[in-house]
Amino acid sequence: MSLGSIAHLQYYFARTGLLDGKGGQLAKKKDAKRQTLDLSSLDTNFLSPTTASDRDSSYSSMRSSPDLAPQTAGMLVESPISNEPDSYDYSDVSDDDPEMLPPTVSTYNYRTKPIPHPPTLAELKDNLKNALEEASKALAEAKAAAPEPATPAIAHLRTPSSLSSSPSRRRSESDASLLTGEGGGPPSPNQGWYEVQGMHILDIITLAIRAARQYYTAHSNPLRLSAIKSERKIRTELLGVMEVLRRMATRNFSKGMRREEVQRMEEWVIGCWDMLGKEEELERLELEERRSWTWLDDSLWSGPEPNVARELAFLEALNPSPELPLPEYAASNLDVEPPEPSEFLRALQSGLRLVELHNGMVKKSKRPFGAIPVFHTDTAKPYRCAENLRFWIKAAELRWEVILKVDVMGVVNGTDGDAWRGFEMAVWTWCGKVREELGQDMKT
Predict the structure, then answer these.
(1) Which residues lie closer than 8 Å to 410 by C-beta, 6 or more apart?
(2) 316: number of CA atoms within 13 Å, CB side?
(3) Is residue 364 part of a domain?
(4) Fewer CB under 10 Å: which end of the chain, C or N?
(5) CA-CA distance, 235 to 238, in Å (whole number)?
(6) Is residue 139 assigned to a domain?
(7) What is the pTM of this model?
């Protein structure tokens, strides 16, 4: 039950007194029991046996007499103190308050208000395309209806040389406005049409800017947009178009739209179409690339986990440096002294390739956070390799929520077979967790 319904019930019972005096705080006593004494019915002999003047004085002192007031009150009216429920009038409600309706079924029936779901990226993209189509159509119509620029007659104007012949005189604002073709002169007979046309363009372009902004801010893969056009350039173009609209509105659309203003808005619309086209091309290439990935299909892989072949296919497909592939996997001989790990484990020993793989997979995810910002690229010193491995282990815990137990110094030194076994198992465990999340992202 909502708070409004509870307040309704409380106020209703308080006003009506249906709780038999419990909660009826606003109930009032009956007016009949608060009437004054009726002195005309008193016996004059009871008050005074002698003169009328004495009777009058007794009348005037009757209200303040402590002995007579209780006697006359007991003879004329009932006691105002009563514990009976009938002594209160619960129907005595002031006329100023509105009539309180009794609670109904709707008082107890709480209805949740439906909240519309936020628009999806496909809906925002369709909205942007429709807004750009309307903007292109409006700009084309405005450009076709624009009159040809007439050659201004400047024979009657003073030339700059004539103005400079008298050094004491400066060019006034009216002369400057006439020379530049702005302001001054009689208003154009088509000013009303220019204002209607300008307001129409202002509305259409503003809606297109709003749709573009919503699409940019709600995009699920902002890195893809950044690869096409930087965020700084996108923001600069938007602010440039808004500045053009501001100037048009400031001059009240005088003399219609200028060619450079129409050209600026057309360039922005064409740039948006070009950006959407490039994004669709990137999506098509990514879709074709995913079709070649075998690690996404669960039906192709069976057997106990970890499946080394599947994890290797996953690492090869999402390698951020295709020009530097990982070595082929081979079994390691870790039971001898000193242990002989494979070339695959040797490539991961410094931790640099693991850090690069982690950052590359974070970029592929729909939740691009948790990348390792600082790491060692020069791994000539053992402590740098150890720090890279610790960075990778901690990032795996924070981003992918997987706990890895690795003997870091044993792997860096390369003299402990158990450390190599734990390291290899940690690599396959990490691959399985990352593959599971990225697979779900790419299938949805």
Answers:
(1) 416, 418, 419, 420
(2) 15
(3) yes
(4) C
(5) 5
(6) yes
(7) 0.60
